[in-house]
Design a protein that fits this description.
Blueprint: E1 2-7, E2 10-12, H1 19-22, E3 26-27, E4 30-31, E5 38-40, H2 42-68, H3 73-86, E6 88-96, H4 101-109, E7 114-119, H5 128-142, E8 147-151, H6 162-170, E9 174-183, E10 189-195, E11 198-204, E12 208-212, H7 225-230, E13 237-240, H8 274-290
Helix pairs in contact: 2-3, 5-6
């Protein structure tokens, strides 16, 4: 059996936020956008979808093994053993308040066996170190996990430190900028990830922490109404951060203020013949370049 944990983060839909809202008050060192639609980080969503595709591929491989076996007691036993070996259990976890529950319900409808939210809806540290400490303690108590998936930019305010801090806390090898993964030889995982020289493919033993980069065509699938109804008996669970013995760390980066970037540019209106204006622009450009 392969146990896969997807760690994801819920953020406001930044495309829907006006400049005035960016200047809103900061609550408990967090940006506060009441009423704005929230969505999973794009790369976290890709991680959740890649986990589903890995599960589907494992199920298809088990079905192929069962169909090719002859009808004997021994073959049935072998097929059952192969199915158990290829079984993939999917789990998901996030930190935050109730706004994350919608995304968790979507994942359970899509076949995630467990979807947990660590409740951090209270004053306290809100930085990469504290989140990594909570998630590491969660993994120790709810694991073991063979694969942990995160988006490359996962973490507080997208600083991208959380995956690396979590891998360090758990002593997991961390592979960054992953674009895909599949079952490899001898129980290993075949990882494809972006490097300075191109895409590298290699078979690696578990456990592993994979940070998913920008992967085309990996939008999270939409569950059907039947799937949503069937998952009603498997709601997301809420875990209080106080259940974990790990002390929240007060050090690290904390959000203090937010201000809009001035993107205005100086401009000058020029009138006259188009050819004359073009010549004047070229001449001024040459003079500026020789200074």
């Amino acid at each position: 059996m392969m146990n896969i944990l997807t760690v994801f983060n819920i953020i406001p839909d930044l495309d829907l936020i006006s400049e005035a809202e960016w200047a809103s008050d900061i609550v408990d060192t967090r940006l506060n956008f009441p009423g704005v639609k929230t969505v999973p980080e794009a790369q976290d969503e890709s991680a959740a979808e890649l986990a589903l595709r890995f599960r589907d591929a494992a199920a298809a491989a088990s079905a192929d093994s069962a169909s090719t076996a002859s009808v004997t007691a021994d073959s049935h036993a072998c097929a059952a053993a192969a199915a158990a070996e290829n079984e993939v259990r999917l789990s998901a976890v996030t930190l935050g308040d109730t706004v994350a529950d919608k995304a968790l319900r979507t994942l359970t409808a899509l076949g995630y066996q467990s979807a947990d939210r660590i409740d951090t809806d209270r004053p306290g540290p809100d930085n990469e170190e504290s989140h990594a400490a909570l998630l590491a303690e969660y993994c120790r108590k709810r694991g073991p996990f063979d694969l942990i998936l995160t988006g490359t930019q996962s973490g507080v305010n997208g600083f991208s430190q959380l995956p690396l801090l979590l891998a360090e806390a758990l002593q997991f090898p961390c592979i960054t900028e992953v674009t895909g993964f599949s079952a490899g030889a001898e129980g290993r995982i075949r990882i494809e990830h972006q490097t300075d020289t191109g895409i590298l493919s290699e078979d690696l033993p578990t456990p592993l922490l994979l940070t998913i980069g920008d992967v085309p065509d990996t939008c999270l699938r939409i569950p059907t109404l039947r799937q949503r109804k069937a998952s009603g008996s498997n709601p997301p669970s809420v875990i209080s951060a106080s259940e974990f013995s790990e002390e929240l760390k007060e050090n690290g980066i904390r959000l203090q203020s937010v201000s809009a970037i001035d993107q205005s540019r100086a401009a000058r209106q020029m009138e006259g013949d188009t050819d004359d204006i073009a010549k004047q622009i070229v001449q001024e450009y040459i003079r500026e370049g020789t200074r």
